[in-house]
Amino acid sequence: MITVRGGKPLRGELTVQSAKNSVLPVLAATVISGDACVIEHCPRLEDVDASAAILRHLGCDVRWQGDDLLVDSSTMSRWDIPDDMMRRMRSSVIFLGAIISRCGQARLSYPGGCELGPRPIDLHLSALRTLGAQIDEQGACLDCRQGAAMRGAEIVLSLPSVGATENAMLAACTARGTTVISNAAREPEIVDLQRFLRKIGAEVRGAGSSTVIVEGRRKFHGCRHRCIGDRIAAATYLSCAAATGGEVMVRGVDYRHLSTVTMALQQAGCQIHSGEQGIYLRAPAVLQGICPIRTAPYPGFPTDAQAVVMASLLRAKGSTMFVENMFQSRYRHVAQLLRLGADIRLEGRVAVVCGVEKLRGGTVYCTDLRGGAALAVAALQTEEETQIRQIRHIQRGYEDFSGTLRHLGAQIQEIGV
Ligand code: EPZ
């Protein structure tokens, strides 16, 4: 758990970690290279450890070299992911496309739901079936074959799913002929995955637009790759500064990747200067409520930033409405924020935050990765002590979360329980 005693402005500068949601699909894609790949400046996250465990299980050599993670998949010898490994990290389904591309077959179990509600993978499976993969679902087990017979095809995603787009790109890398993925997700992490795939010899283009085109290849090789900065981690630390009347400089992220978040914080009264050198934010003592925030696929307002921006507005003058359109239950942090004195009204996908004068300390529990970070954003706004428990959720996606906040002047301690 972590204990926080807030009430002071956060000040200073930080360089944000590499993007978790880039590193995870890139680690899966190393399986396709069949060679040694170096992921430079790889963040030390629980989800990276979970991916490394899967890669080692598959027979790859995975080892840290300072801040770089080396993955040599030339020694890959298996194509199955055990159930316990699938459960440890929901996004392990991203290995499906990579394994079937490399081995022609794959066996893994349903990743199951997570804290955000059911996490269906119907779009992933229909994309791979469109390429010709044969996928038998026996209970919770997915048995995928005929990967070697996959042919390029037109895949139309009924919604721009990030994971389904990535799985389709990975499977299409070795499907003979041309694959066109329409209504593809446009997240920057997908562009980053395309950058990595082109480095190992795949022929992929169009990422970042709604149409991604892949020409099947058979021969791949290793590469060195440094992923983009984590736009959600950046949004989190900016929210911490905004929430405490602070002043920060966040480096190592492309400001264009979180312009909907910086726009919201600007509307709330923060001074923001974005440029090649990073994002500078200076917050007023009290924020203003802003017009409704509706989460949407990129380049819309990111669902992953909803909780932390909500938490930054808990003491704002006026109220702000949030509409969560991406996940069924992504308001589980609200009950915890209410325990700290917040005034939030929930009605289905809509949450209305009414600013309060003061928040109070207390004991709260992380419900999911970003909801957990939001509890810290709230705790930083009161001088009373807050205990935040089950921080393993936060450790899944934030590298040295409490150390980073301490570096900005926060009074925060991590205590093993
Ligand atoms: C990715 O999850 C991210 N995870 C999530 O970040 C992020 O919240 C999400 O994209 C949306 O931006 C990683 O990249 C590892 P989706 P993903 O498929 O790929 C439905 C975090 O906090 N859907 O775009 O699972 C789905 O239920 C995590 O870092 C289907 O119905 O998201 C959801 O409602 C949390 N069928 C919506 O689409 C499918 O086959 C968007 O999901 C797939 C998805």
Offer a concise description of the structure.
The chain is an alpha+beta fold and 417 residues long. It is built from 14 helices and 23 strands. Strand 9, helix 6 and strand 10 form a beta-alpha-beta unit.
Features:
single chain; 417 residues; alpha+beta; UDP-n-acetylglucosamine1-carboxyvinyl-transferase, Chain; 4-stranded mixed β-sheet; 14 helices; 23 strands; 32% helix; binds ligand EPZ
Structural write-up:
- With 417 residues, the protein is α+β, with helices and mostly antiparallel strands.
- The chain has two domains: 2-16 and 229-414, Enolpyruvate transferase domain (UDP-n-acetylglucosamine1-carboxyvinyl-transferase, Chain), CATH 3.65.10; 20-226, Enolpyruvate transferase domain (UDP-n-acetylglucosamine1-carboxyvinyl-transferase, Chain).
- Helix content is 32%, strand content 24%.
- The protein has helices spanning 20-33, 46-57, 83-88, 95-103, 122-130, 162-172, 188-199, 231-243, 259-267, 306-312, 332-339, 369-379, 392-397, 401-407, and strands at 2-5, 11-15, 36-40, 61-65, 68-72, 106-109, 134-138, 141-145, 154-156, 178-182, 203-205, 211-215, 223-226, 247-251, 271-275, 278-282, 293-294, 319-323, 343-347, 350-354, 362-365, 386-389, 411-414.
- Strand 15 (271-275) and strand 16 (278-282) form a beta hairpin.
- Helix 1 (20-33) packs parallel to helix 7, helix 5 packs parallel to helix 6 (162-172) and helix 8 (231-243) runs parallel beside helix 12.
- It is elongated.
- Ligand EPZ binds next to helix 1, helix 5, helix 6 and helix 12.
